């Protein structure tokens, strides 16, 4: 990538109303069969076009082919029974009815390869694809087979690695693993979290990034955030481990969060996808606000390592709000780019 401070979304964009209920997380599809396949591809094309029109440098699918960032992947695996549901506590924060692991987990065929191929056909720009991370996967399931979070995480890491290698072969330039669980389970993070993530990314030539966030702007998350105090130092647990890891970069929240930016020092040398857009607010940032967030981060990140991004996915937002936020992201990054080029 030649552009200094390139821009990229973390993940989801709102879906069109003909595909799924807008402004709702994880809403079911409105189409079926071939019409659904075609509808997802149409939505993906719109998502690409909107990112391009608003000047984004790294293009993603806006998660238009996925209902949920974790379960859509798991749905395609053997060993998980989606009819047998149990209520478990997710991210140590809220209860949810989840599918159950009832046997050995395995992947019989690729999950997202066709989608990546389709995305690849739509653009010559670098493309990024997101997969759930092993720890976040096990935290979204009830397990009646392995009876060990660690064992199941290693199994998923192997499966993710198979998938990631095929996504890379299909043309993905960047593979992102979503691990919001890294901000919650600090002992596991230390014991096997980063190790299983490295296993998932093993042997990839594509750039790898791990997205660690404080979640979508839903009530359970905003309530949790209110208990975290004036300074959110959760990243202090993961960054030193990731700094020593084979993972190329991290994606983190910044805009409107209480994350002290000096923690970026702990990840020096890695790529940093900095969240300069708040996804829990309908207020569209000004380019100057985005630029300010990026400038503050440049105190701790080398400019050639900084990627301007969003805090998390934008699925629950209105489409015009998401579009406005993309424009602000591009314009804000352009401001800082200009300042840096003047300085050189
Ligand atoms: Zn997120």
Report on the architecture of this protein.
The structure is a single chain. With 344 residues, the protein is α/β, with parallel strands linked by helices. The protein has a single domain, classed as TIM Barrel. The chain contains ten helices and nine strands. The strands form two sheets. It has a six-stranded parallel β-sheet with strand order 3-5-6-7-8-9. Strands 1-2-4 form a three-stranded mixed β-sheet. Helix 1 crosses helix 3, helix 5 packs parallel to helix 6 and helix 6 runs parallel beside helix 8. The two termini are 19 Å apart. The mean pLDDT is 95. Bound molecules: zinc ion (ZN). The site of zinc ion has 6 residues, from loops.
Compute the average pLDDT: 95
Question: How can the largest sheet be summarized?
Answer: 6 strands, parallel
How many structurally independent domains? Answer: 1
| Strand and helix order | HHEEHEHEHEHEHHEEHEH
**Span of the ends, CA to CA:** 19 Å
What is the fold-level CATH name, i.e. the topology?
TIM Barrel
Q: What is Rg?
A: 19 Å
Q: Quote the beta fraction.
A: 15-25%
Number of strands: 9
Indicate the overall shape: globular
Strand order of the largest sheet: 3-5-6-7-8-9
The CATH architecture is Alpha-Beta Barrel
Q: What portion of residues is helical?
A: 25-40%
Which stretches of 5+ consecutive residues score pLDDT under 50?
none
**Helix count?**
10
CATH class: Alpha Beta
| Structural class category | alpha/beta
Unique bound compounds: zinc ion
């Amino acid at each position: 990538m030649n552009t200094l401070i390139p821009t990229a979304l973390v993940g989801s964009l709102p879906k069109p109303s003909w595909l799924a209920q807008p402004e709702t997380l994880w809403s079911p599809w409105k189409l079926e069969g071939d019409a659904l396949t075609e509808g997802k591809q149409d939505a993906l094309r719109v998502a690409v076009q909107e990112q391009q029109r608003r000047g984004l440098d790294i293009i993603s699918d806006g998660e238009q082919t996925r209902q949920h960032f974790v379960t859509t992947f798991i749905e395609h695996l053997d060993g998980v029974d989606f009819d047998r549901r149990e209520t478990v506590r997710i991210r140590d924060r809220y209860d949810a009815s989840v599918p159950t692991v009832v046997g050995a987990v395995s992947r019989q065929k690729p999950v997202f390869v066709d989608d990546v191929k389709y995305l690849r056909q739509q653009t010559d720009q670098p493309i990024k694809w997101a997969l759930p991370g092993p720890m976040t996967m096990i935290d979204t399931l009830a397990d009646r087979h392995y009876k060990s979070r660690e064992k199941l995480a290693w199994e998923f890491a192997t499966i993710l690695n198979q998938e990631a290698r095929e996504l890379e072969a299909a043309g993905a330039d960047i593979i992102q693993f979503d691990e919001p669980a890294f901000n919650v389970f600090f002992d596991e993070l230390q014991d096997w979290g980063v190790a299983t993530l490295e296993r998932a990314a093993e042997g990839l030539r594509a750039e790898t990034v791990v997205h660690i966030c404080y979640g979508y702007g839903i009530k359970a998350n905003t309530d949790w955030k209110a208990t975290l105090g004036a300074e959110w130092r959760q990243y202090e647990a993961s960054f030193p481990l990731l700094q020593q890891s084979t993972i190329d970069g991290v994606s983190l929240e910044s805009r409107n969060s209480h994350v002290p930016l000096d923690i970026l020092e702990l990840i020096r040398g890695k790529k940093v996808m900095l969240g300069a857009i708040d996804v829990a607010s309908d207020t569209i940032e000004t380019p100057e606000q985005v630029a300010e967030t990026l400038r503050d981060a440049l105190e701790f990140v080398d400019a050639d390592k900084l990627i301007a991004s969003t805090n998390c996915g934008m699925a629950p937002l209105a489409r015009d709000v998401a579009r406005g936020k993309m424009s602000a992201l591009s314009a804000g990054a352009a401001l800082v780019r200009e300042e840096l080029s003047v300085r050189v």
